[in-house]
């Protein structure tokens, strides 16, 4: 037994004096030889050198008491537990009510601009600078902080709502049970206890915790020992929980008993390791008889010892110590010890399958569970552009400092000149020194030039990203009609990152696949069946066909796009090769037509199939439902017609029967019988055994005789749930009629009808009428440890070889209407090393022999075939068919057999017995003995199974790769499965060279394998470069990595770099058998070393960690839970929606935000620099150039709307063209739209335009009086002219940069310009303001209007010229796409005009104009979507 160090033992007392014996237990503590601390098993994954935020793991173990009082050394002096456990409540939100304000303010003031404007507000409040209204300066920063905080609060509130929904999942816990691991302090008043009862970790009964029969003091009815509903968040360590078929585990628990008399419980582990196959879990042998709540109280007296919580999903070491009471001294003594392994543990996230009920005791809760230890804390994510924008902010700070420094120096120089002139007193009242004057001028200049830092940019970005989130949520292309779910943005600040994703890390099961296996084809004796067109083209075959078609058509690359346009222009205008914008690239018309043709063909084939089937036998179990069958070949039954069971296998008909007989017997599936309502029928043949083991009825069953009493009982239960508190006092221990709970075998009438019938009321299945198949008399369903195994057995059933039941070692199979019993002698199980499974059976008459059936991978079976006793042409043809299956993306298995004589088997059996009991090298010896039996096999054939992908997955991955995105698949499945899915999903193809890195015990071996692969890849590339003209291009590479290899790779920096070196040279990467933590580490590795934008997508709880680590996390909101979508930044219903989310919405967001940020910097630089030019002519006085109203309202009123509309609605290309031209997305990966070069280009453009506008009016004022009425000009008239012209130019600039004009842009550009003029007119009409009369003085002079239009023309001329050159002479990929869209729209209009002219003049006008109106309407709709 492991020597666990219990953290809450009083070690100080043990050192000061002799060990104390507890007054209740006799030697419950380990003896002195076992008191030393040990090293608890550490997780197998390195945690160093990573920024993955893992939850803290306690260093010590724990001891959990069940139906036992806590020893005195486990209690503090106040009577409370010395060690408390975490709550089972899960929180994925960022904030709490208490932490929101400080944490959110910290997040916001990490932005340098926010800190700057806060400092500026403080400076302007100082009376030295005499700013009239500091409150106006506080308004922008307060507005930004408030709006951002409100947005963050709303986002996090939605997470809290999902958390609350998840924490309120219903589970069943045992009431009438005292959980002694949560004792209350003995001196608490009832009022204080009721207040503390709801606190987490403080649930507990009174200190007197001995297990006795008791009644409540108030005389109320005592609670019964039954399982009642409770909330998942209220489950505590040490609680008994009842689990039903289909239930998800609320916490990590030890399995005690199940509805199976052997104590086996089947679980689905998809949420943890991504696998959908069923895995058995074993009950603790001493407690597998437990069948009721009363049994839990009477028969369970033990404590559990375990190590610290560990994230390792595949290891657990613990001990269950069973106790009994010594009647002599009334102390608890040790009865026996049982090791607890991972096979006895049910983990949070496991789903109970094929088991009616199970009872378990909770060991770890909340953040101590393995699934939560594999997930990180919810991170605060910032977009890549946000980080880069902060760098530009620092540049603006540098420019600001330089401007202020220049103004301060010049002010000091001017002050020094004034002092030296001797006549300063005549024109200035300043008495300051030049240094102090320069110092004051520096801070005054800081106020004057403060707008060069665009604080309104932040609030504008918040608005824009909110609009973008709304448009994404409202996009009907990402609406899933089946689930009724749209794409839900949960983190609104990452929309621009969607347009820069370079790596996608995807889970497989439930994300790429549907978790459905279909038997598609088989080859038997060299004859191929199933390729008759009944099933549609497989995804792998379709992908291979499309790739070949593209290669044959020699589609031009991105660089050849101009040539394509030239070719289109040279062709006949009446028949241009245009893009069908009405066609969804993921759902082509060819696919729809092929599906329609396939449905028609299936109806014809199924008729022949039914006739051929019924000609051989009358189907009792076999389905002929066209919608349920994936394999239906009439030729199979025609070839089977003349065979007789039991004859020598020489011809093809007998091979067919032997083939399907193998499928029906070589497996470990579990059978479910389905009734006409779709519910599972209980197996009645084991009733006698169950009755012998059943316990008498408990009080609950006796009190529910009448319907009204049962209804009242349920109502009471519901009220208890609604008023349920997690305090231990809510579970009073009461066993009414304890004597009646003892077994009385002499009263058979009191025995229950079935094992655990007490749970029938809460384990009844919901209506599942959709499972019913009307074409069969008796419907069977198979549950297997692997989904492909169930598909194989189901295919045999539909072919007439039905596995009916398994009783002990007898397997019953219905062979074409006749039942046979086969004795199962041995099972040689499948594992990743053997890659095969075998069974040895004794067959009844007419066979009367012993046979070995073996199925496995083709390379494994081929090595073990009998070359002499097999026709080589059949073997060759079979291997050709297997290759064809693989090329079509099907998962293949080869089937073989061997007949044995009795002596041979007995001899082998003795060797196996000796090997299995060996004390040393047992596994190796067993493997050697198994090898001796699996030789000289005769080949029967092979199968091809398709792992069904989600709709549109191959096309989506193909387009994502064309867009320059590298797709990695991280899965918990085995290597072969992952490779098959790679082929089916277009991630791999037949021309690729696969490189595999397998796991080894020695890390040096893994590193050496990577070095060898690197060297080979470098050698291939060098050979090609040396003779590039004559040599063929090297094959495209793909990398396959096992999770056991990743364990060693993450240990050293060298191995990480080697992995990345290989991955860069590979087009696709698949990581298999990886844990959730390894997924996160892989994502973090690529993100850190490559400095790229990463996206992780998954659907299960095992994907949460990588979703949180990636720049963008996307959760598939499927049917397997909500934890992935809870933790994600975006929740979608299907993988294919990534196509629209990234290639369209992501590209739009990136392009919009890029142009918006650059335009913001431009207009702020443009606005600030006239103030600098003014300082030159005002003796560097530090006076404000503009009227104060313009200064404060420029960013938040006069120029905000057009740039926000640009960032919210602009489309450089429309949605159909972005979906059909995925190459356009590469501009985001290369980050060409928001670069330092473009920033400086916009910056100097702002400087240029400020020079033009300022000096245009400056020269107008210098060389003459601009006022025709003879009034004297003023500085305010000059600054107002410059301000109005600057505002107009700042509003025209977003319009000039807009690629897709909508009425929003027309309206707001015009509105802002009109508002500027109205402000001067209306606001200047008040005599009390400084602008009084400026409207007449400025707008009344023709010289203003002439200078106004001339300055705008000159200011815009360089930008127009540069834009023209870039768009037409040196176009980037976006410009090429715009040319193509413009050309095709032009050609369509021309074609429409020609067709309309043929129909007549009046009709032409109607048919030509009306489509244009429709086109404009659609354009507006697309702008909003």
Describe what this molecule looks like in 3D.
The protein is α+β, with helices and mostly antiparallel strands and 1425 residues long. Helix content is 45%, strand content 14%. It has 45 helices and 34 strands. A 9-stranded mixed beta sheet has the order 14-34-33-32-15-28-31-30-29, sandwiched between helices. α3 packs antiparallel against α4. The longest helix is centred in the C-terminal third of the chain and has 40 residues.
Summarize the structure.
With 1425 residues, the chain is α+β, with helices and mostly antiparallel strands.
Shape: globular
The share of residues in helices is 40-55%
Distance, first to last CA: 64 Å
Q: Find the count of extended strands (DSSP E, 2+ residues).
A: 34
Number of helices: 45
- The unreliable regions are 1-21, 27-58, 186-223, 554-576, 685-753, 1404-1425
Query: Radius of gyration from the CA trace?
Result: 39 Å
By secondary-structure content and strand pairing, the structural class works out as alpha+beta
Strand order of the largest sheet: 14-34-33-32-15-28-31-30-29
Largest sheet: 9 strands, mixed
What is the typical, i.e. mean, pLDDT? 77
Fraction in beta strands? 5-15%
